Amino acid sequence: MAFPGALNVRTKARRVPRGGTVAALDVGSTKVVCFIAKVDDPGSIRVVGIGHQVSRGVRAGTIVDMEAAETAIGTAVHAAETMAGEQIRDVLVSLSGGQPESQTLTIESPVNGHEIGDGDLKRALAQARNLTISPDAELIHSIPVGYTVDGSKGIRDPRGMVGERLGVRLNVVTAAANPVRNLMSCIGRCHLGVEGFVMSPYAAGLSCLVEDEMDLGVTLIDMGGGTTSISVFFDGKMVWCDSVPLGGAHVTNDIARGLTTPLVHAERLKTLYGSAMVAGSDEREIIDVPQVGEEERGTANHVPKSLLVGIVQPRLEEIFELVRGRLEASGMAKMAGRRVVLTGGASQMTGMRDLAAQVLDKQVRMGRPLRIGGLAENMGGPAFAAAAGLLSYAVQHHADLPALAPLVEQPTGLWGRVNMWLRENL
């Protein structure tokens, strides 16, 4: 019997049958994406509905205008439902804001010298439900990342072993309660239930990383519009995550201010000409920059591309330096190894891989969704990694979740406790 990679306190226990439907909602600072997928075989998913909408009312992954965000979410979901030809009731939601905090805790449970079985594992994992969380925080994930038996570390699966005490090492991820509740309320106003929250860098990792990277140690950097999220995977599990409140939208704002051009033109300049690294030809290449308040094209400024790159590069260097600082402060740098995978919409700029390698002093590759069928080429890029990862999480998670179903409600009566003991030990 397999156990889930994460226990999400909000997730409802349900198995997705073959031919069943899963829905994912990625509410970002620059875009809202809804994917609806069918489960063809266990672990195999095929996207049948896609909704993509410019985000409104969201800043740094947090709702700042409930009505605008509701409209953007509703429009994206409706487009996905129309394409899929069916209506959805619940969605799995990515979380990129809320100032996530990740810490490793060890919980021990007595096993009194007998052979460790499924029941002992479930009892040990059950204690994760009773973790004391601050009233202004929400528990998002409690991920088993390793086991100990009588203090011996490095155990992947303790079942069948004999010992006195079973320990579970957990990566506990919390987020500020109010941003999470506001997002849940906004989705509820669209007549949708929240099946669970998944941290954005966790979902992106499930989507983009290969198994060897997850086992040997890798850092995933998900560069969004308002936030840059970080996760570290080791031994097949996410062992740490964090986020930096800077992203692609801040680069756009810097361009708009530095070149006194409207935001819409700043975004266009970033997309067409932006580069994370200076090239020798940048001084000779001239670009037109429309000016704020000017309607005639003839009034545009003509500036060398090097001026644009000179605005873009310092901000991106700042983002990667903050990521490096968070990694070093976390104590996870050794587990993270020398491998970095970049994903997210803001990672697509020319030269981003080289700049990341230079600042972080690691080997860097670009990541895109690997395990999802039915995605068009324009939807299979780094910008849609988190949304695709939510679908992977839904299938993997729900396939195992019934093993933990008894933990949701503990029996109180005598017969209830007897029945539970019989189920676990016979």
Quick structural summary:
The protein has 426 residues and is an alpha+beta fold. 34% of the residues lie in helices and 29% in strands. The protein folds into three domains: 1-97 and 175-210 and 370-426, ATPase, nucleotide binding domain (Nucleotidyltransferase, domain 5, 2-Layer Sandwich), CATH 3.30.420; 101-174, 2-Layer Sandwich (Dna Ligase, domain 1), CATH 3.30.1490; 211-367, Nucleotidyltransferase, domain 5, CATH 3.30.420.40.
List the helices and strands and how they pair.
Layout: E1 21-27, E2 31-41, E3 44-54, E4 58-59, E5 62-63, H1 66-84, E6 90-95, E7 101-110, H2 118-126, E8 137-149, E9 152-155, E10 165-176, H3 177-188, E11 193-199, H4 200-208, H5 211-216, E12 218-223, E13 228-234, E14 237-244, H6 248-258, H7 263-273, E15 286-289, E16 301-304, H8 305-330, H9 333-336, E17 339-343, H10 352-360, E18 363-366, H11 385-400, H12 414-425
Parallel strand pairs: 1-6, 6-11, 12-17, 17-18
Antiparallel strand pairs: 1-2, 2-3, 4-5, 7-10, 8-9, 8-10, 12-13, 13-14, 15-16
Helix pairs in contact: 4-11, 6-7, 6-8, 8-10
Output the keywords.
426 residues; alpha+beta; Nucleotidyltransferase, domain 5; Dna Ligase, domain 1; five-stranded mixed β-sheet; 12 helices; 29% strand; disordered N terminus
What does this structure look like?
The chain has 426 residues and is of the alpha+beta class. The protein has three domains: 1-97 and 175-210 and 370-426, 2-Layer Sandwich (Nucleotidyltransferase, domain 5), CATH 3.30.420; 101-174, Dna Ligase, domain 1, CATH 3.30.1490; 211-367, ATPase, nucleotide binding domain (Nucleotidyltransferase, domain 5, 2-Layer Sandwich), CATH 3.30.420. It has helices at 66-84, 118-126, 177-188, 200-208, 211-216, 248-258, 263-273, 305-330, 333-336, 352-360, 385-400, 414-425; strands at residues 21-27, 31-41, 44-54, 58-59, 62-63, 90-95, 101-110, 137-149, 152-155, 165-176, 193-199, 218-223, 228-234, 237-244, 286-289, 301-304, 339-343, 363-366. A five-stranded mixed sheet has the order 3-2-1-6-11, sandwiched between helices. Strands 14-13-12-17-18 form a five-stranded mixed sheet, sandwiched between helices. Helix 8 packs across helix 10. The longest helix is centred in the last third of the chain and has 26 residues, at 305-330. The chain is globular, with a radius of gyration of 23 Å. The two termini are 14 Å apart.
